[in-house]
Amino acid sequence: MCGMKFKFVLQLTLVYIFSLLPERANACAVCFTATEETLEAFYATTIILTLLPLVMVSSIVYWLYRKHRKIG
Amino acid sequence: MSQSTSAVATDTHAEHHEELSFLYKYILPIDHKIIAMQYIFTGMIMAIVGGYFAYAFRMQLAFPGDLVPLYGLVGPGEYNMLVTNHGTIMIFWVAMPVLIAGFGNYLIPLMIGCDDMVFPRLNRLSYQIFLVSALVLILSFFVKGGGFGGAWTAYPPLSSVAEYSLTDWGASLWLLAVALEFISFLLGGINFVTTAMNARAPGMKMLDIPIAVWFIVVAVILFMASVGPLVAGAVMLFMDQRVGTTFFLPSAGGDPLLWEHLFWFFGHPEVYVVLLPTMGIVAEIITVFSRKKLFGYRTVLYTAFATGGLSFVVWAHHQFIAGIDPRMANVFTVTTVLISIPLAEMMFSYIATLYGGSIELKTPMLWALSFLAAFLIGGVTGIYLGASAMDVYFHDSYFVLAHFHYTFFPITIIGMFAALTYWFPKMFGRMMNETLGKIHFWGTFIPFNCIFLPLFFLGLAGQHRRIYNYDHFPDLATQELQDIRVFATYSLIVMIFFQLIFVYNFFHSMFKGEKATENPWKSNTLEWTTLSPPPHGNFKVLPTVYRGPYEYSVPGRDEDYWPQNEAPKKS
Amino acid sequence: MKNISSQSVLLTTSEIPLYAANKRSKPPVSNGVIGMLIFLVTEAMFFAALISAHMVIRAGLTEWPPWGQPRLAIETTALNSLVLLVSALLMGYSRRLLQQDKISSGRRWFGISILFGIFFLLSQGYEWVQLLEFGLTLSSSVYGGLFYLIIGAHAFHVIGALSVLIYAWNRLGSSKNPITPEAVFPLQILWYFVVCIWPVLYVLVYLS
């Protein structure tokens, strides 16, 4: 009984430790080719492409809103 | 333009809307209604082509190696060409032109109470480019090597190297057609947003705009903000194919994953681009046929904004197994699950609108309700796929295929039929036959479920997509799985036969149907206050708006509807 | 009345502004400007994608520029960039003059701004000829491909913007078929965009 509980705690600890090392829990078959620079470039471009439209559209909408408010 | 010229302007305006020769009325129109018809009819013709392709490859899957009646033998290359172009046509040449360009063109000026789009010539140019793009796509089926067969996502290097795809010119023409089509919708989109912004009827405030118009505008803004990267990617891919650059060729310094980024950066917002117009159309229909105010107009509107904003941050969930960083996959799993919240809220608002209403089950209402039911299944299965841990196993299986057909079929086909049956009286001045309409509805909706529900089970059994003959895979060639495939194919044939009823009903009603009144459904929005069909210039007197579009069953009134332009009684 | 069109040159609207027809109040932002802004959102995303492509492909290669490929003319192009920026400033000045209804002097500075733009274009074209002679072509390496793709995309925008600007400049002062200053504002916004995106591309392609 006690052994089973210990086993469970051990398993939980192992899962926790592995979750801190996500590159070890890498399940995909093709993830090993990219260099760290490429990964970083993909991060950067993802952020640029994602935020740019949101920033542009919301600033245009805000500008139009202010123009309309001024007119009344 | 100064104020002094406006009186003169009004005079020439009336004159301007007089007689037009046949050429300028139907072939080179600037009237938004005629351009809308051109888009809708072109889209419906392309839907026949796309459906024919679906028939051919479903027959091959059910009876591998047999001659397909009315088509011939489907070989592996042929099969790839059929599925690729089925997907491309249904999304880019059916969903986009009918739902956004077609109904957007038809509804925006009528619903906001103005006489035409603000840039009518740009509008005409937009359709002409669209027509050219459709012709280029059709041309690509007949060049040497046949049409492109690298899937509608066109991943390189399969799509960029002619020795791999075996469709040297087919691939290039396909890409050219897609790029032309985007330019066409770019021009249309500029028009839609500007019109909705600047040409509204006096008195129509932002929150008096019907949901259908709002959603088309949000969808267009999403499209405009997301299409740039795909155009850039298409230019690069085209150069890879024809000029000899190596942007996507890993052996020469390129990166194939880059294409997936650029493609899906557009590709995922695109899903919401086609979803939102249908959602708007359904909102109009369910309020009219349940004679109730739309539950939470503002909530529905804000959920659309939230969906639009979030749609830019979910796209990498298409690449969970393509080699992206697993840490990034975690982020995109969270955002993907998040986007279901605004959409669920929208669905709940619609269901709350139905609750307690006096529901009339006319044909458009049946389509609208079936959209909600079917899209629910599509949405819920999407949550499974959004979780990266499960997607690793479901990826590229028939589960994915069934999932997106449960979203795209309701959006495109059911949404199109809902809109056509609802606005038919306004478009052609005659009513459609209700009995035939209902037979067509049940004959489409039941076979639709019979086609795609079994495919979920095929996917869970491990059936992979894009395989032309499962006989080569012993695990997948069992009799039970083959029976499911045959059942799905037969259901498709049944569904195709029921479309003939629609075609008959559509054309018969167009010429011989019962004459429609101005407002047969007793609706509030502005398009129902003018003649059916509306004359060139839309309104005899351009309307003034006094209230929101969903004032149904207001207490203390004799009628249960209250048109937006009816002046309030002076007490 | 028919001869004076306040509509933008690119975005021809119906003969009659809709707001005039039903005593509609004039919208605070003109149709042309809204249409152009939406178009520029798409354009900005197009260039953002090209920039992303450059960053990703650059990160995948250890040697940049690759071995055997010529270096780009950083100094000459810096001078060119300055010319382009001055052109945008002149365009802004002419816009202010046009807003004050000083059509003839506004038109003069408008023309000078276009001339600066043409100088930029010709000078860049000369640089391209030299690079081609040194062996940098589209297919010589992914480096060359990216250079001609990004700078070429910008050059296409310069050519397109300049041609509509010249057309507008011509119609602005002509006696037969004139347009109001309001009609050229959207095109001037297009020119600001084309100029403003250039320093980003210059830093990315030439300096990184």
Q: Can you offer a commentary on this structure?
A:
The complex is a heterotrimer of chains A (72), B (571) and C (208). With 72 residues, chain A is mostly helical. In chain A, 75% of the residues lie in helices and 0% in strands. Chain C has 208 residues and is an all-alpha fold. The N and C termini of chain C lie far apart (54 Å). Chain C has a domain at 75-208: Four Helix Bundle (Hemerythrin (Met), subunit A) (Up-down Bundle), CATH 1.20.120. The longest helix of chain C is centred in the middle third of the chain and has 32 residues, at 103-134. The chains are: A mainly alpha (72), B mainly alpha (571), C mainly alpha (208). Chains in contact: A-B, A-C, B-C. The interface between A and B is medium-sized, with 24 and 24 residues.
Mean pLDDT of chain B: 91
Number of helices of chain A: 2
Which H/E pattern describes the elements of chain B?
A: HHHHHHHHHHHHHHHH
In the CATH scheme, the class of chain B would be Mainly Alpha
Q: What kind of sheet is the major sheet of chain A?
A: none
Tell me the β content of chain A.
Answer: under 5%
Annotated CATH homologous superfamily of chain B:
Cytochrome c oxidase-like, subunit I domain
Oligomer state equals: heterotrimer
Helical content of chain B, roughly? 55-70%
**Could you state the order of secondary-structure elements of chain A as H and E?**
HH
DSSP helix fraction of chain A:
over 70%
Which geometry of chain B do the CA atoms define? globular
Q: How many distinct folded domains of chain A? A: 1
Distance between the termini of chain A: 76 Å
Biggest interface: chains and residue counts? B-C, 61 and 53 residues
Q: How many H/I helical runs of chain B?
A: 16
